[in-house]
Specification:
Glutathione S-transferase Yfyf (Class Pi), Chain A, domain 2; 2 domains; alpha+beta; 213 residues
């Protein structure tokens, strides 16, 4: 049985949704961020970076959300969470997952933790404002992709792991001045992914209340 170490709404949400999509048995293990448990000695043995989530798969201990999503997609290929290996769609799948984790998610860290890059209050506010604008530009790029595509998902007609990942990141923008849901194609995308029973089960299990994104 899988174990997923999580905190509600954190970067575990995408892997959690995929576990529900696959339909396998798994156990959620709460890491209480309010008590800084992700920095405890016990947790650091699982993930030396002190970040959430961690997936336990037998003897395998895996961290980094995108890596967990890829592992689950490969381990359960019949679920169709990733396109066929060697296909052009698979290449696009890699591109978007890397863009989401390496570009969008990385920029969001500057928005949520601007004090890591600045010392005084004015500089912290400036870092946060710049990060929000940059995230907005990235969302516009994704909005254009959805507008040009066949939809309703990021890669077209079929739901993939990148869709859960995009939902998770869009949820993190919900309190920004111009959140993801304010863009029409992203709004339709979010409504579509949120309507999936697996998404709803994961949200309910984590106790995530509205606004969902």
């Amino acid at each position: 049985m899988y174990q997923l170490y999580y905190y509600p709404g954190n970067a575990n949400l995408a892997p959690h949704i995929l576990l529900e999509e696959i339909g396998v048995d798994y156990q959620l293990v709460l890491v209480e961020r309010s008590k800084n448990e992700q920095k405890s000695a016990a947790y650091l043995k699982l993930n030396p970076a002190g970040r959430i989530p961690v997936l336990i798969d037998g003897e395998l201990v895996l961290y980094e959300s995108a890596a967990i999503c890829l592992h689950l997609a490969d381990r359960h290929a019949a679920a169709g969470l990733a396109p066929a290996l060697g296909s052009a769609e698979r290449a696009q799948f890699y591109k978007w997952l890397m863009y989401l984790t390496n570009t969008v998610q990385a920029e969001m860290l500057f928005y949520f933790y601007p004090e890591r890059l600045a010392d005084d209050a004015a500089a912290v506010a400036q870092v946060k404002a710049h990060a929000e604008r940059r995230v907005g530009d990235m969302l516009e790029l994704i909005e254009a992709e959805l507008a040009a595509g066949a939809g309703p998902y990021l890669l077209g007609a079929h739901y993939r792991a990148v869709d859960a990942y995009l939902l998770m990141l869009c949820r993190w923008t919900r309190n920004m001045g111009h959140p993801a849901r304010a863009r029409p194609h992203l709004a339709r995308f979010l409504d579509t992914v949120m309507a999936r029973p697996a998404t709803q089960r994961a949200y309910a299990a984590e106790g995530i209340a509205a606004p969902f994104y």
